[in-house]
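stage 2 :: seqdesign
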């Protein structure tokens, strides 16, 4: 059990958490909810041991291991993906030690004075390696990586620096899931996942046997995953022993009940204060007056959680740009031998609201960085039109804020000509009101930093917004406010977002990146989905670069040629599959034998026979070399099937 008692957190004069008691039983699945800035991320970091409370204690269960996924971009060492995962799981150094001891054992004679000591060391390392699933780690790593949308056959050997910010967050999530932690603290785990990866993660978490505490603005994810809700509000915590949807109902009922109790309490306070004022100086009532004063001093004020803020506003007019706002001419991008896209040509005109879509890894974020001129293309160029002033938001944009400034100072640095009252009104629309505007940026939550960054962009008098997943750290209400702001925005928008509902009545054109090429679809997001599904149904296979707006009638020769091509492809795939079957059987047999030898080398009776140990070590080395070679062959054959 995790025991939290009397927990208090203050940032300067700002009281974030106040005298919190919370007991989390083993295998709990808790959704930690609350407004942005309520202290959700702070609470996770406290439980993870990253931050210290101002007061109070957190007692963790004995023998626990905590895995923490932050919502902000994490620093990842620049090594190959598989090496990073091994290192994070503690296997890299352990594997090196094992190999060293195994080499030493192969050189020792049966009567060596250090044989017994070396064998004991090998047994201890072997057990530790086995306890961390060392022998099956790569198989499990492939499963997790594939579930999160990677292509392990290619991606596992890529350097982590080659991946975008969103994919680095997936790498961090993969490392966490492979870490064998018995307590998982997840801060917005679905932010960088597509639908398929989300569904896979939900399945993985359902099978997980440990404790889960998660922060998420994804209502669907919470309702599927959690069995209780911990709500942070006004520095306090309220526990609901139910799923998320039922919590919403119970919360409203609780607020209504508290409102009634609050009104009753106000009436009682007023009556008491009137009594005190009336008889304060009457000697015969002195005892009663003092009793009433003490009652007021001891009375705990019933607080009612604030409800959603419905603030209407209009953003300032933006300067008029030329008709052609953004043009791409023959843009190509490659990282070494890996081509992302090639020969992209497009034009975006004044006032358009364009969604850029595509599967993960298609190059959406890369293209936006090129259009923002924060990354050069391999070939071609992007041109801004006449009088175009752009603003760019990405997953890393919050890092550009001055952490020594307050929110108010950051907003004033935009150069906006708005009056102070108008700025306060806009800050209120983005849920910064009263003294909140004087919070220092360094103590803000991820969601609050994103809101400050977005607000700065909308105040910057730019007439072109290039937005990469702008809603990732926004709660439902703030997302609605931002959506309304974009609908009223007078400039041009190019946006990447996995939020279908957000895009649907915002955009009037969709550009899809597919197989390194662009395809244009006039209309909103739902119309794009409908057209794509129709195209997929009509065409079994679409050639890269082929125009998808006209479907010509196929002649008999073309149909015959396509049929022959499909048959040829089938024959080639069958040949590969025929090679795969015996290879996979051999790999399976070698893995079984490898495990048998590993178990034998942990047996005290076997370890007492040095000659047999040396023979087993030689056999183990041969099997590991064969497995390495056969896994490489397997990867090549699987790649051919794609």
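stage 2 :: out
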């Amino acid at each position: 059990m995790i025991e939290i008692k009397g927990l208090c957190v203050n940032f300067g004069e700002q009281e974030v958490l106040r005298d919190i008691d919370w007991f989390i039983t083993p295998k709990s699945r808790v959704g930690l909810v609350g407004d942005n800035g309520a202290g959700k991320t702070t609470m996770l970091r406290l439980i993870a041991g990253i931050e210290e409370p101002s007061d109070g204690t957190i007692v963790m269960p004995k023998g626990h291991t905590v895995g923490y996924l932050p919502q902000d971009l994490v620093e990842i060492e620049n090594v190959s993906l598989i090496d990073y995962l091994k290192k994070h799981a503690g296997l890299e150094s352990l594997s090196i030690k094992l190999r060293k001891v195994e080499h030493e054992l192969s050189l020792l004679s049966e009567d060596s004075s250090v044989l017994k000591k070396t064998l004991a060391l090998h047994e201890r390392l072997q057990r530790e390696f086995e306890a961390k699933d060392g022998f099956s780690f790569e198989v499990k790593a492939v499963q997790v990586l594939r579930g999160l949308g990677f292509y392990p056959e290619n991606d596992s050997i890529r350097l982590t620096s080659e991946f975008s910010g969103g994919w680095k967050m997936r790498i961090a999530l993969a490392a966490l899931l492979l870490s064998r932690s018995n307590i998982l603290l997840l801060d917005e785990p679905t932010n960088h996942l597509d639908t398929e990866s989300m569904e896979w993660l939900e399945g993985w978490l359902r099978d997980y046997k440990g404790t889960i505490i998660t922060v998420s603005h994804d209502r669907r994810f919470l309702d599927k995953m959690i069995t209780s809700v911990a709500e942070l509000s006004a520095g306090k915590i309220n526990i609901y022993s139910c799923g998320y949807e039922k919590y919403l109902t119970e919360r409203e009922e609780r607020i209504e009940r508290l409102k009634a109790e609050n009104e009753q309490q106000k009436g009682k306070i007023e009556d008491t204060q009137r009594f005190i004022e009336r008889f304060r100086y009457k000697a015969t009532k002195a005892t009663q007056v003092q009793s009433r004063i003490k009652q007021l001093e001891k009375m705990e004020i019933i607080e009612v959680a604030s409800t959603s803020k419905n603030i209407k506003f209009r953003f300032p007019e933006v300067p008029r740009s030329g008709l052609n706002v953004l043009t791409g001419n023959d843009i190509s991008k490659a990282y070494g031998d890996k081509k992302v896209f090639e020969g992209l040509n497009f034009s975006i005109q004044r006032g358009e609201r364009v969604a850029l879509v595509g599967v993960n890894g298609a190059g959406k974020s890369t293209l936006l960085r090129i259009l923002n001129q924060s990354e050069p293309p391999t070939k071609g160029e992007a041109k801004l039109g006449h009088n175009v002033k752009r603003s760019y938001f990405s997953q890393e944009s919050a890092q550009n804020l001055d952490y020594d400034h307050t929110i108010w100072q950051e907003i004033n640095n935009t150069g906006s000509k708005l009056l102070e009252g108008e700025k306060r009104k806009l800050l209120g629309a983005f849920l910064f009101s009263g003294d909140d505007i004087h919070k220092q940026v360094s103590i803000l939550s991820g969601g609050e930093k994103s809101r400050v960054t977005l607000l700065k962009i909308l105040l910057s008098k730019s007439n072109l917004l290039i937005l990469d997943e702008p809603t990732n750290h926004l709660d439902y209400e703030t997302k609605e406010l931002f959506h309304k702001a974009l609908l009223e925005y007078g400039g041009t928008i190019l946006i990447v977002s996995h939020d279908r509902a957000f895009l649907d009545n915002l955009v009037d054109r969709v550009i899809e990146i597919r197989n390194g090429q662009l395809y244009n679809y006039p209309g909103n997001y739902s119309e794009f989905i409908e057209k794509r599904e129709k195209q997929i149904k009509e065409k079994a296979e679409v050639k890269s670069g082929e125009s998808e707006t006209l479907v010509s009638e196929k002649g008999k020769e073309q149909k015959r040629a396509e049929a022959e091509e499909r048959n040829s492809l089938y024959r080639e795939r069958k040949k590969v599959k025929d090679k795969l079957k015996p290879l996979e059987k051999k790999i399976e047999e070698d893995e079984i034998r490898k495990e048998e030898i590993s178990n034998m080398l942990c047996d005290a009776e076997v370890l007492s026979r040095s000659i047999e140990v040396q023979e087993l070590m030689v056999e183990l080395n041969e099997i590991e070399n064969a497995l390495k070679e056969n896994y490489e062959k397997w990867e090549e054959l699987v790649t051919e099937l794609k």
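stage 3 :: structure notes
- Confidence is low (pLDDT under 50) at residues 547-555.
- The CA atoms of residues 269 and 296 lie 7 Å apart.
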